Amino acid sequence: MTSKCIICGADFEPKHKESKCCGRECATIKQVETHRQQLAQFVCQHCGKVYRVTGARLREAPARTKYCSVECSKAITIIRAKAKIKPVPPERTCLVCGKRFRSSYEFYCSNDCRMKRGRHKSRERSVAKNNVISRPCKECGKAFISEYGDKRRAFCSKECSDRFANKMADHSNYHARIRVRDTAAFVAPVSKTKVFKRDGWICQICHKKVNPKLPHTHPMGATLDHIIPLSQGGTHEPKNVQLAHRYCNCYQKRDRAVGCQLRMFG
Question: How far, in Å, CA of 224 to CA of 193, rounded?
């Protein structure tokens, strides 16, 4: 079976099925022409320089044919990065504090202003929903509307609440003096705060820590205990009182004289 040479056109008998040239000379000519065909011209996308790339480079890294050198590739990367920089956001005014700030979508300059605005809106919705009206403060008598429309709030501020709590503490001390007067015992001014600090907020019956944040009505709250009970001739004075849990005072000791060591300040 004969084939026709693609270079010179002569008929020859191929030694292999893939042979297309009649001899070595024609095969060399074909190889040179193929190599020349693989050489291509490209224009750099950055500087516009015309450059050539071999066929092997085209097959291995076709993306590198866009630029003539590494410098041009880095330069075009920097240009694209600068083009992606976000524009400066517009200047706005905070709806709560009036401070000027820059943002594309925020209406508040900080999270505190956002939360303050949310509390104000929640209070308005609660007042409108519950139809809350102003009520007098239990301490100063000033009319106020509680935050969030809470109907259980009885004081207009924390100062009034603390002042009322101090009065109640003096009131309980007053009842203690009344009980002492009925037993004809000695009475002296007693400050609960000083007594509690003197004992280091430690229950003098169970010798465990007392939480100052608990109310006195809590079973583990702070109470004033008479070391020698009033019913047994004890006096109402600083050296005869101590700190104790309400549970220890009312359910463990009761009216018994447990440990008659009187306390002293210092």
Answer: 10
3-state secondary structure of 236: strand
Q: Let me know: does 173 contact 187? Beta carbons within 8 Å.
A: no
Instruction: List the domain boundaries for the chain.
Output: 3-62, 100-149, 181-253
Mean of pLDDT over the chain: 77
Distance CA 134, CA 142 (A): 9
- What class does CATH assign to 181-253? mainly alpha
The token duo for 69 is 């050198």
- The torsion angles phi and psi of 260, rounded to 5 degrees, stand at -90, 20
Q: How far is CA 127 from the centre of its chain?
A: 30
Q: What's CA 78's distance to the chain center, in Å?
A: 37
The more confidently predicted of residues 168 and 104 is 104
Q: Read off the pTM.
A: 0.34
The per-residue pLDDT for range 213-237, each reduced to its tens digit, is 888 888 889 988 888 887 777 887 8
Residue 10 predicted with pLDDT over 90: no
**Taking a C-beta distance cutoff of 8 angstroms, is the pair 255, 232 a contact?**
yes
Query: Both tokens of residue 34?
Result: 């193929």
For 137, other C-beta atoms within 10 Å of its C-beta total: 17
Token reading at 224: 């004033």
**Which residue is associated with the tokens 């202003």?**
113
How far apart are the C-alpha atoms of 33 and 50, rounded to whole Å?
22
